[in-house]
Every structure is written in C-alpha cells, then in structure tokens.
C-alpha cells in the first residue's frame, strides 16, 4: 500500500484575502525586480491587512528582503536598488508601498518575536521566496515562534517613550498655533503694504496699523501678544505641559484670529 503524499498549500491561506488587482501588481513588480536584481532579492512579500478585500483606494504593501549574507551590500549597490524600485513603482502602480529589510535584520525580528515580523508572517503572501519565508510562516502557524524576554521589554520601553512623547507633541501643536497666528498677521500687514516685522513686534504693529486705524478690534492685537508670550514661555521651559483642554482653548482663539484677519484681507480696499 502506497502512502499518499499531499503538499501543503500555505499560500492560499492568505492569498484569497487580497484583491486580484493587488496580487497582479505585486507579481508584476516581483518579476521585474528579480529580473533586474537577481539573487540579491531573497524574498518579496505582499502583506498588510489594510489591503484585504478593500474596495477603496489603498496602498499595496510590499516587503522586499535583500540578501546581505552572501552578497556584499555596498552603498553604490543600495543606491542602484533604490532607483530601480522607484522606477518600477512609477511604471507599475503608485499605490505600491515598498519596505525593504536586510535578510539578517528580518531574521532578528523573527527570532525575538517582534510584532512587526509576526504580522508580516501572519498576513503575508510570498510572491517570490527563496525558501525562507514559508518555513517561518509554518513555524508561526505551529506556535513555535514566541516573543523573547528582550523583545517584551524593548516594546515596553517604547510605550513609555511614546507616552512622554505625546506631551511633547502637544507642546509642538501649540507652537504650530503660534506660527499660524504670526503667518496670518504678516499676511494682514502685507495687505496694507507694510513690511512684515519680526514676531516680537507683530502684536505692536497689529495694534498700531490695524487696531488704531479702526480696521480690526483691539482684542486681536491682544491675541497676537498672547501667542507670542506663550511661545516664549514654551521656549524657556516655563510651560512644560499642555492639557487637552488648554489646547482646545488656544486652538479656538487662534482660529478666530485667523478668520478675522482673513475677513480683513478680503474686505480691505
């Protein structure tokens, strides 16, 4: 009695989840890139849950694994590779979003159970594979790829950094409001043929040229001064944190100021 040999079809597990058009572009990109780069390409993977059966316009995420083990990756070679990829994206579809990993780097991600690598293995369809991606997928499906302790703490440290970074971005957002006020002020002063002053003198000039001339209300000169003073407090670290409630208030003031100056610019004769 002869044993029946059945082949595993790992590709179809994920392939059916992607639109045919995405697969077509991915296979064309893969064929042309491997023709240009040869053995330098270790694998080309279609991945990304955003693309799954979506009827809306979306990026087509492609991962290219380059062989840095058997081939010396020089700066000139990398530059040539980038030019080829850019040309192929322009030729095939600008929806292609190509990410490139070195072979050793991808292995390191997998070894540590990094979420990026795990998601690529879980969702990915190997378009071109020199027999390294499918074995890793199989190990994942079998539950034999696990996060390392090092990876756990690396990601935990990122969460702390991101948490504190969010405070900085709130401060940065307030500084954006300040520059929006300054830009609108400059535009209004230019409208009456005045040379825009430095930010330190904007509020005084708004008061002198626009408020005293009866062109806008006094409170807008006060707004300009308020945002300049606010920027200095941020610069000198007198203000280190901005609450969401404070940001909303600053945004409303800046928006009102900008709208008022737009009305002045449009109506000034």
| Structural class computed from helices and strand pairing | alpha+beta
CATH superfamily placement of the largest domain: Beta Polymerase, domain 2
Could you name the ranges where pLDDT drops below 50 across 5 or more consecutive residues? none
Largest sheet: 4 strands, mixed
Q: Supply the number of structural domains.
A: 2
Query: Radius of gyration over alpha carbons?
Result: 28 Å
Count of DSSP-assigned helices? 10
Shape: elongated
What series of H and E elements makes up the topology?
HHEEHEHHEHHHHH
Q: Based on the structure given, which CATH architecture of the largest domain is correct? A: 2-Layer Sandwich
Strand content: 5-15%
DSSP, total strands: 4
What separation lies between the terminal Cα atoms? Answer: 99 Å
- What is the CATH first-level class name of the largest domain? Alpha Beta
List the strand order in the largest sheet: 3-2-1-4
CATH-assigned fold name of the largest domain? Beta Polymerase, domain 2
What average pLDDT do the residues reach? 89
Helix % is 55-70%
